[in-house]
Amino acid sequence: MSTYVISDIHGCYEEFLRMLKKINFSDADSLIVAGDSIERGGHSFEMLKWIESCPANVQIIRGNHEEEFAACIDLMVWLDEKEGLETDYCSNKETEALYSSVKYFFKNQGEAGLYFDLYGTINTLVNHSGVTLEELCRWRKMIRNMPYYKELTVGDRDCVVVHAGYAPKFEDVAALFSRLEDFYLYAREESFQLGGKRHGMVIAGHTPTISKGTFAYNQGKVFRHYEKEKDCVFYDIDCGCVFRNKNPDAGLACIRLEDETIFYIK
Ligand SMILES: [Mn+2]
Predict the structure, then answer these.
(1) Are 139 and 191 found together in one domain?
(2) Which of the 8 DSSP states describes residue 77?
């Protein structure tokens, strides 16, 4: 029985399934997906469907892309109500029309409008996969039920799995972040500079290890950092899978926590 962690799948559904096969994932094991399962890549629909019916031994954590996706659905519902559009939640055609209205509305809102469906995820879901507002709202609810992190003990170490960074309390990060939740979702090198778990291990993603010039750059291999002062092992396991077409170093990584073995789909 093993515990696996995968992060930043970003709609790379096929690579994700190949990874499950590679690690021989079974009912006796458990899997934690550390956020950003959707957006950027082409198969957010398949990922959302998979997450929705995933088995009990799988725990899905919230990433900034899930958070932002849910916020965009808020905007669709908000405009529908504000303008009295009375969109039929069960109609794909009416959801398409609402999407166009929201796009049009934000086109005239300057910079703030740029962030509505920045990656075209909702556009693809609605216009190509026939998704309705009802389904979007169901996924929004599912996302808001996802925890920001998961704590577990492996061997003699307390582990925390989180999308970007973990800190025990807000005061630790208050100099740079306005909410502790933002640290969970957006921390970069602050993850081990400000955060961490004493005598523990933090497993995160968020910063692709293919990005030259960033703290985690490791030619597409998992980045491991040991913070002596806290006796904390820090892992960044985002190996930039969604950039595989552009970067031969990129891939999907998975870590088995019991022995820190890393698996790759390249
Ligand atoms: Mn992220």
Answers:
(1) no
(2) H
Q: 64 exposed, middle or buried (CB, 10 Å; 0-12, 13-18, 19+)?
A: middle
CA of 214 to the centre of ligand 1 (A): 14
For residue 151, the SS3 value is: strand
Q: Is residue 133 domain-shared with residue 173, that is, in the same domain?
A: no
Beta strands, E only, the chain = 3-6, 30-33, 58-60, 149-154, 157-162, 200-204, 223-227, 232-236, 252-256, 261-265
Instruction: Tell me the CA–centroid distance for residue 186 and ligand 1, in Å.
Output: 7
The whole model's pTM is what?
Answer: 0.96
Token pair listed for 214 = 């960033």
Q: Which of 143, 166, 189 is the last residue of a domain?
A: 143
35 and 150 in contact (C-beta within 8 Å)?
no
Q: Are residues 103 and 200 in the same domain?
A: no
pLDDT digits (tens, 9 = 90+) for 111-139: 777 789 999 999 999 999 999 999 999 99
Q: Are 162 and 149 in contact (CB under 8 A)?
A: yes
**Pair 101, 31: CB distance under 8 Å:** no
Residue 62: CB atoms within 10 A of its CB come to 24
Same domain? For 48 and 159 the reply is: yes
Q: How far is the CA of 236 from the centre of ligand 1 (A)?
A: 11
